Structures are given as C-alpha cells and as structure tokens.
Amino acid sequence: MRLPPRTERDFAVQVVQALQAAGHDALFAGGCVRDELLGYQPKDYDIATAALPEDVMALFRRTIAVGAAFGVVEVLGPRPFRVQVATFRRDGNYSDARRPDEVIFSTAEEDAKRRDFTINGMFLDPLSGKVIDFVDGRADLEARVLRAIGDPYERFREDRLRLLRAVRMTARFGLHLEPNTQRAIVHKGATISEGVSAERIAEELRKMLTDPNRVRAMRLLMELDLAAAILPELLALRDQSASLGNRWEHTLNVLGRLQQPSFPLAFAALLHGVGRQTTNAISLRLRLSNDERERAEWLIEHQHAMEDVEQLRPAQLKTLLVHRGIDELIALHRCLAQADGRDERSLDLVEQRRSEWQAAGTLCPPPLLTGHDLLAMGIPQGPAFRVLLEKVREAQLNDTLMTPEEARDLVRHYKP
C-alpha cells in the first residue's frame, strides 16, 4: 500500500514511479534539478516524460490539461500537492517572441536543447538519483556560469523575457555570465518590450527586488543596458553630475539594507530618488496592481516625514502610524538614515510614541463625532461637512478635545 505523500517532492516521486511503471520514461526537469544540485529547496517540481498528454490523463485520476497543445498536464494529488507533467518536445518557430507556433513531441535530448540556459536543461531520475545532462549544465553549475543553450541570440529571440531571467538567475545564484551570452543580452536588450507584456516584465522585477541578491540584479540591469529598456528613469541617477554625489550608488546602498522587503517597499527604495509622480508613471507602465502602486507612492511621498519627528504635531504622526504601510515606512526611513550616515534617534522616538499611544488607547480612538452627529446638530451636508469632521478628528488626535461635548462646542464655534 502506497503511503500518502508528506511533501510535494514525495508526490512528484510517486508520479514519476507511476509513469515509469507504465513503461514511460519520466524525469524531474529544469529548475527543480538545478535547485537540488545547489542544495536549495525547489519551489515546485516539474516532470518531463515520453508519455503523451492523453497517456498522462489516462494514468492519473485527477488531471488538468493546462497546456495540452504544448504537452503539459497538471496532475493533482492530495491537497495541496500538484505537479506539471510535460511531454518531451522540440519547439517550432516563435513568431510572437514568447511561445512556439507548434511543438513536436520528441526525445529527452531534444527537450533539453530547446530550454533557455544550461543550468536549467538537466534532468534527474529521482528513483536512481542519476542526473541526465545533454547540455553540460552540471559543469556550468559547478563553474558558476550562466550560459544559454545553443545560440544565445536565437534563445533570446524566441522569448525576450529570458534577458531578464538571465539577470535574475545570475544574481540569485552568484553566477557570472558566459561572454557570448552576455554579448547577446546587450545586443538584444533594447528589444525586450517587443512581444513581452508589461505584466511579465513586472513579475521578473518582483522576483529580483524581493531576492536577497537584489542589488547585484539591479547592477546587472544597468551594466547590461537593460535598465535603459525597462526603467529608463534610473539612468538620471547614474548619469548626474558628480557634484551632486552618486545617487545611483546611494540608491543601491538603501536597497541593500532592506531585510526581506515586500515588493512595494523594495520598489520604493529603488525609485525613491525619482519621486512620487515618476513612480506613478512607471507603475502604470508596468501595470502593477493598484495596491502595489499606491503603497510604493505613499512610501516615496512620506520618505522624509519622520526625519524630525519632534516637529510633527501628534495628529500628523498618528495619521502616519495608523497607515497600513507604517512598518514599511519605518524600515525605509531606517535604511535611508543608515545610507546617509544619520542617527536613528528620531525613528526610535517614533517607536516609543507608538507604544505609548497604543497603551493609552489614544493612537486611533473612536471618533468623537460622526456624520450622523452633525446632521443631528442641524448641519446640512455640503462642502463644510467633511471639513468639520476633519477638524474635530485632528483636534482629537492632538489631544485638545477629549469628549463629544467638547467636539460639538468646536463645531458650533468653528469659522472657516
């Protein structure tokens, strides 16, 4: 009796076992092989097989044909386990710079040679532990080299997103680019937006900026002229006059000090030198989510707000402290202060006041007056309605109003 899988790898091994038992070659493929050879925990497991999609769907009870035209079937196991099983194939022409126009089911060797980089072109039989390597990926992995499989110009022409993937993997795994691969990246960099959607570019940036090696990734983007194609606004930081200081190096200094940042925080750190309006334009161009765009803009808008907290009225500071992004703002402020060589006493005071106000229940108290209260006082809805509520709330947060009656008195005597 087969034991239920405890991990995704256990389930993937069971899928390989079932395919091999049915007479089909089946192997772990691509990134999961690379990660295991590097000693990392793979994010997911992909299986390549000689079985045709219909064979896979007949063999397993729960499947989804996620890309049957490309030979890809998802096999579902006990929740939350699932693996993608792809038939060995070679690709036809790429007319859209992303997907092949046709695929021809083929052999493991041809399947390896259609992939992007040698370190992603290896297979592993998890039952025997044998690595099957038609592209010398293991040697490149041991030498810490990122090399395109075959002709790098052709690989990047097929899918220009590979230009960014090359940067991300080089940075993430501490590799260096094979010279011909590097020349092809520089040559093809200006064409990256041809056939590559803004959403796919943004997803690569998310992965780069939230990785511990984000600074090296950003350096590579600049050195390989890819920044000019996807984030040209950064060039002004690099190319400014020396008399203003090196703002690009300062930006990288700030970025490198972040600890496990969210994407909006890392994005704000990267763009803090170009300003909120430019960040808005970049976010719209990359089609970031509204939440990502708004958070990054808020962080940049308030990047100097707590540099001298003693000059802030309580209401101003409390308004910042109750924002959902406050912890990210404090983190950004600390990194900016460290990069500038400033002390962090102002931020320590922010943390102290937040603790004190939370303990006293005055950080975000219930409003003393609501719109219903104003209506009950005979004040009609209109332009002054919101102004009155804001004035009452501000005075409450400044601790100058303590009771609803004091708030009503302010409303009665308020003169615009």
Task: Supply database-style keywords.
416 residues; alpha+beta; Beta Polymerase, domain 2; Hydrophobic Seed Protein; 4 domains; seven-stranded mixed β-sheet; two-stranded antiparallel ribbon; 22 helices; 10% strand
CATH architecture assignment of the largest domain? 2-Layer Sandwich
**So what's the CATH class of the largest domain?**
Alpha Beta
Q: Please count the beta strands (DSSP E, at least 2 residues each).
A: 11
Number of domains: 4
Mean pLDDT: 92
Q: Choose one word for the global shape.
A: elongated
Could you say what the CATH topology of the largest domain is called? Beta Polymerase, domain 2
The CATH homologous superfamily of the largest domain: Beta Polymerase, domain 2
Our estimate of the beta-strand percent is 5-15%
What count of helical segments does DSSP give?
Answer: 22
Ranges where pLDDT stays below 50 over 5 or more residues in a row are: none
The major pleated sheet works out as:
7 strands, mixed
Structural class of the secondary structure composition? alpha+beta
**Computed CA radius of gyration, to the nearest angstrom:** 28 Å
Assembly state: single chain
For the biggest β-sheet, the strand order reads 3-4-5-2-1-8-9
What is the CA–CA distance across the termini?
Answer: 80 Å
Report helical residue fraction. Answer: 40-55%
